[in-house]
Design a protein that fits this description.
The protein is an alpha/beta fold and 189 residues long. The chain is built from 7 helices and 9 strands. It starts with 5 loop residues before the first helix and ends with a helix.
C-alpha cells in the first residue's frame, strides 16, 4: 500500500470502503492532495458509485468544483449551524450578485428581503441577493441606479458570496422538493 501513489491509494481506499456495499458512505475531503487527472478519475468512480440504486454518499470537500460535479444536494454549515440543505442547482441559481451602477456616491441600501450583503466599490454597489424576484427588483430599482447587471455564478462563487462578510442574518435554504421562492419565505434562523 505504501508503494502506491496517492491517487492509487485513494482508489484502493474507495474500493475497500465500497466493498461491503454500505447504504451510507462518508468521505471527508477524499480528493485532497490528488493531482488534477487522478482527482477527475476518482470523481468519475464516485459518480458511478452514486448512480447505483440505494446508495448515499456524504461527501465533504473544500473543492467546490468537485462538489458541483458530484453532488445533487448540498449542505452548508456556518458557525456550527446548518444554513443550507437543498438541491445543488437550487442554491447556485438562487444566490445572485447584482452590480448597481450610480452616477455618484451610491445611496444607502434599504432592508430588502433576501439581501445577503451589499458593498460599495467606487460608484457601484455590489449586492448579493437570494431568490431575486420582482419585489426585490422593484426595491433595487427604487435606488435609481444607472444600470443593473445580474451576474450568473457557479457553485463556488455562490458559496463565497453567501458566506462572505455576514453583516446580516442569512436566508436559510432548507428545502425538500420546493422551489427557490420558499428559501426567502423561511427567513433567517
Amino acid at each position: 500500500y505504501r508503494r502506491l501513489s496517492r491517487g492509487q491509494q485513494a482508489q484502493v481506499s474507495l474500493a475497500l470502503a465500497v466493498g461491503p456495499d454500505p447504504e451510507l458512505l462518508v468521505l471527508d475531503d477524499p480528493t485532497l492532495g490528488l493531482d488534477t487527472v487522478v482527482r477527475r478519475d476518482f470523481l468519475e468512480s464516485l459518480i458511478q458509485i452514486i448512480q447505483r440504486e440505494g446508495r448515499t454518499i456524504l461527501f465533504s470537500s473544500h473543492i467546490l468544483g468537485d462538489v458541483e460535479r458530484v453532488a445533487d444536494r448540498i449542505g452548508i454549515m456556518i458557525g456550527g449551524v446548518l444554513r443550507v440543505d437543498c438541491r445543488t442547482e437550487v442554491f447556485r441559481e438562487s444566490v445572485q450578485k447584482l452590480i448597481l451602477e450610480f452616477k455618484g456616491i451610491p445611496p444607502e441600501t434599504p432592508a430588502i428581503p433576501g439581501l445577503v450583503s451589499c458593498r460599495q466599490v467606487g460608484t457601484n454597489l455590489e449586492v448579493v441577493m437570494v431568490g431575486y424576484d420582482d419585489a426585490q427588483r422593484t426595491a433595487v430599482e427604487s435606488l435609481q441606479p444607472r444600470s443593473i447587471e445580474v451576474l450568473d455564478m457557479n457553485l463556488e462563487d455562490a458559496f463565497i458570496e453567501y458566506t462572505r462578510g455576514q453583516r446580516r442574518p442569512l436566508p436559510v435554504f432548507m428545502m425538500e422538493n420546493q422551489d427557490a421562492q420558499s428559501t426567502r419565505d423561511q427567513g433567517a434562523a
